Batch of 2 targets.
Target 1
Amino acid sequence: MKDILYKYLSRWTSLGEEDQQAIVNEIRVEKLDKGAVLFKQGDVPAACYFILEGCVRQYAIDEDGREVTTNFYTEEQAIAIFNHHKSDKSSEYTFVCVEDSVLVVGDLDQEKDMYDKHPQLEFMTRRMMEENFSKVQAEFAAFIASSPEARVKTLLANRPSLFDRVPQHQLASYLGITPESLSRIKKRIG
Amino acid sequence: MKDILYKYLSRWTSLGEEDQQAIVNEIRVEKLDKGAVLFKQGDVPAACYFILEGCVRQYAIDEDGREVTTNFYTEEQAIAIFNHHKSDKSSEYTFVCVEDSVLVVGDLDQEKDMYDKHPQLEFMTRRMMEENFSKVQAEFAAFIASSPEARVKTLLANRPSLFDRVPQHQLASYLGITPESLSRIKKRIG
DNA sequence: TCCGCGCATTGACTTAAGTCAATGGAGATC
DNA sequence: GATCTCCATTGACTTAAGTCAATGCGCGGA
């Protein structure tokens, strides 16, 4: 299981094996059941997460009471960017496990300690953040420019496993369409 | 003009007046004409920017040759997040002035020097990045969840000045709709 | 094992946005 | 000042997605 972590550390840092082991040994890994909530919209997050196995859905309830799914995190993805800019630092999103999942959990109040002990971690965090940011920007651009049908095709091409792992109506919400439309589009392009 | 900068520094750092002046004096401010290009899609950006006055449009040409506008930057906004994650660090977007503009230009190869001299700047940069990230995420979520008409209403509410400053067909592209639809929606909700 | 609920699918209909085409106005150029 | 070009608007028509409603399958709980 932890080999995923080693792979990730190697990709993003130039740490030696001993340092990597030191980090991995300090790390808390938790197993969460399907339906488990990492934290809720309005909560102040106490930890950041890195997915070793499973799938986490990010969603918000908007002003009209509708549930909007804004992301799915799967293996090797980090949930680490929150609303630092909001004065109360509360989350605008709820994060919930779509499947039984195994996550690295990093307590935010130990963040500084970890960075002091392992300076390269801070660099890695920055890089992950930049990568995530670029990705979200690119996805946003693609979303703006494409029709619902094109969006479904893109998602099928880029993350086909989501269609097996995630309920259709949540996928539809993530794609900005109704479940009925998603069903019809799938039939049309199937 | 530079009072905008002071305001911004005060908001984001706890620097004393002397330090602020030191920073502001080191800074390069440039006046650019409407139509001037900061850098093009495919270029490796040499600088980051902060808008004191004017308006910059961010766009990309997609695979089908269509121009997709992905953002408009106006007063007090920073253009500072690039594709650090791409191996060649080239930009996926072109940035062009929609109006005559006045920008702070920060050479990226002097970035480290500036951070060494003024450590708080690095903190400020991180914060700006986090804020931008949260904002893009929130905008994305809102975009997913709303119809073209609702998106127009939201933009009218949040950034009404764009409708005066920016050509309609570019706004339409930014909103993910055709210029014809934008025209009709405006008439409908006007 | 059986029952019940949630959810995916399908159908009929409505509606809003896309497409194609024409018009007309404002600003730029000479 | 006249012309040209670009672009916003408007119209007619097409199409795809939304809405409302019914059905039926599958999964989980008792």
Target 2
Amino acid sequence: MATIRELARRSGVSVATVSRVFNTPEVVSQHTRQRILDLAAEIGYLPNGSARTLATKKSNMVGLVWDTDHRRPGWRHPFLQEILVALKTALSAHGLNLLMLAGHDAAGPDDGQRYVRAVRQHNLDGAVIIDNGTRDPAVLALVEAQVPCVALDLRVDGPTSTYITSDNAGGAALAVRHLVERGHRRIATITGPLRTWPGAERLVGFRAALAGAGLQLADGHVVEGDFYLDGGHAAMDRLLALDDRPTAVFVAGDEMAVGAMRAAQAAGLRIPDDIAIVGFDDIEVAALIPPGLSTVAQNKPGFGTAAAEALVAMLHGGDDPPKPTVLPTTLVVRGTT
Amino acid sequence: MATIRELARRSGVSVATVSRVFNTPEVVSQHTRQRILDLAAEIGYLPNGSARTLATKKSNMVGLVWDTDHRRPGWRHPFLQEILVALKTALSAHGLNLLMLAGHDAAGPDDGQRYVRAVRQHNLDGAVIIDNGTRDPAVLALVEAQVPCVALDLRVDGPTSTYITSDNAGGAALAVRHLVERGHRRIATITGPLRTWPGAERLVGFRAALAGAGLQLADGHVVEGDFYLDGGHAAMDRLLALDDRPTAVFVAGDEMAVGAMRAAQAAGLRIPDDIAIVGFDDIEVAALIPPGLSTVAQNKPGFGTAAAEALVAMLHGGDDPPKPTVLPTTLVVRGTT
DNA sequence: GCCGACAATGTAACCGGTTTCAGGTAACCG
DNA sequence: CGGTTACCTGAAACCGGTTACATTGTCGGC
């Protein structure tokens, strides 16, 4: 393994000069620079990342906090894969790597400082937080420790942190307006967990849009779900048991919407004739399941790229507190409406 | 930021002793050890990972090679999320972290050495390769460079590398036998890309099982697909255009199977009465799409845990070449058969 | 009472870079 | 021709750990 001293010796310069070739190339003369670069390529020299990190305290790595909730074994993010692809691509375009941080599953004590510890131990430059749905104290510790952070779908801010989210309220409004246009008057909703940011916001948007259309929200027409399929099914069952059963339901998550569709079908209802459904997320199944789930689509890669941009801005950029990014949503009309 | 010298000074011992407390605790006296640990907790001392890596050349990090194929923007692994969860959990139980390595998307030259470079630069202890479907030369460079590697669904082996795969041939055989039991005699298959390991093996298993059942494989009853939905659709169209149309199709991937179902339905065929379909993978949609896709299920978390085990065995274990892991598959019968 | 073994700790070199500061050379100016 | 100045390079301290080797002290055996 070639080291910098080896390379310096061979090319007859000092280690300082070699170091400069890789860090501030403009200060070393064209001639020596080229000679060193050629030789470096020849002997296969690569600057050692650990040494560099040790000296500079910058690792060019950001942590990925994605806590696979131990209380909920089947926990899945609706479109983790798309986010990850976009995030990784955008980060590596800036020379940043992504380190997956261990969550609850990690060995060692858990005093709520586990992410902070990991960040300090590895000299991470920042962190991306993919919401686990709850305000994990360990996550909050991260932003309190002034680690540059960008959270997805979790509302955190401060001098060194910001968040990316879809226009949840606006998306919900899109859904409602669409249903109203289709002639529905009795519109219910199955929400996400209301302690989560998207869960809460989509309900806010729903209510506002309903009011905007001059419609009343009937008793029992708001049922809190859990973003999972079975939860959606159960919630729909409750709606269908009502005396003034709604003719349309805005379901705040596609997975729940699929469950809701099943519940409706199990109750012998035809979709969309007897009951219309609009989901949120636009996950893969939405297009596949007959008759096709109308839904509010999120800009999935947008989460990843926006997160990368925001993080880079905080790392390289000035001191002005970063602005949250709100990604626009779009309505996708399929067969359920 | 407390350093080891600071901690040493405060507790009145040498840095060597402090270091030993964290690395070989048994050699330092109970009394001093406790005193140092207490003080460490008090001042919040954490060993610096970079310094440690620099000195020991072990980083306790493994690279994740997951090349999001730039030639195929929509490239998705059928169950990346499940693998990732299991992998991360299993690795962190051994104190290992996962670093996502940049692929084609990275800046800099691409001479096929990009992963090797990344590994050397960060002193990675090993790598997990999530197959991109092709034998990427950059991946092969990794195993040639004697980096401890474990590949998923990609057959690589050598003194420092091994792979994890499902029993693809066996799974295909399960599917065929199931169809035979249902009374089918004219069984066709839509394969994955035959240059991929799972694509090839599933075809092998298919052929063997057919022969084992004493059945002939008719001309044109093997159509190569691409693991994507549209490819499955197109392949099914070709099968349905045949004179001796099959009564059952083994589709070597669920995503393709969904496409195939659509093609069949578009052609006015009833499933499973006019044509039966068995998929492979057991992705989420399989259970959701009516009438429910019968399929060969893979042990998804198994990939992650097995990969972690294999890697740990190579890192800590002896020099005996690691054994590949073949995960059993199971048949899940739903409505398409 | 001396010696060897052993347990606990310290000293200092080393891992492979970065960076401050200073030195040398050549060009330029008055 | 002396003095700036700009440009390029080198010497050496430093980042925060690990570890080979040396040292000290205790104790048991003979």
